[in-house]
Amino acid sequence: MLQINNACVAFGEDVLFSNFNMHLKRGEMSCISGQSGRGKTSLLNAIMGFVPLREGSITVNNILLNKHTIDSIRYHIAWVPQELALPSEWVSEMVHLPFELKINRKKNFSKEKLFSCFHELGLEEDIYHKRVVEISGGQRQRVMLAVAVLLDKPLIIIDEPTSALDGDSMDKVLAFFRRCTEKGTAILSVSHDENFASGCDHRIKL
Known about the structure:
The structure is a single chain. The chain is 33% helix and 25% strand. The chain is of the alpha/beta class. The chain has a single domain (2-205), classed as Rossmann fold, CATH 3.40.50. The chain has a 5-stranded parallel beta sheet, sandwiched between helices. The protein has a 4-stranded antiparallel beta sheet with strand order 2-1-4-5, covered by helices on one side. The longest helix has 16 residues, at 167-182.
């Protein structure tokens, strides 16, 4: 599903990492960990085509990433950044927004499936009708994890999926992800959380 060969990300003379290699198969969950400033988020951004590689290559679902294939690559990925800066007043608007993007317009939104994901993630259905400012950061995080799964992409990329969660909520997220991988979804995350990282199939230190 994802193959990274000899990747190097650098900004000017500042090399964040080089000679990085990894592969991720369908149905697997990998976690990238490491100290701050090592380029973990930059790696995720590189996979999405937001940050160019200085060296190396990235292939997603047998498509080599370049300026001509970025849209095709993004079609296969559900992306959940750490900072959710969605311009929505209501949660109902927030969950619909990804489906309004050009690349996702063929995807069908289902409130029934959304609420099923809410239940698995320990969220109440009434959150859907609240203002975004009325719910916690951890709740927003889990709402967007539910939306990412609802988009039905073969690869989910998440930056710090449990940063705002307590232990019980983190366990629910891990179990939720595991059910996704059992259906063939590949999941790549960045996390500083030792417990979350240990619950993944593979842990990669950067």
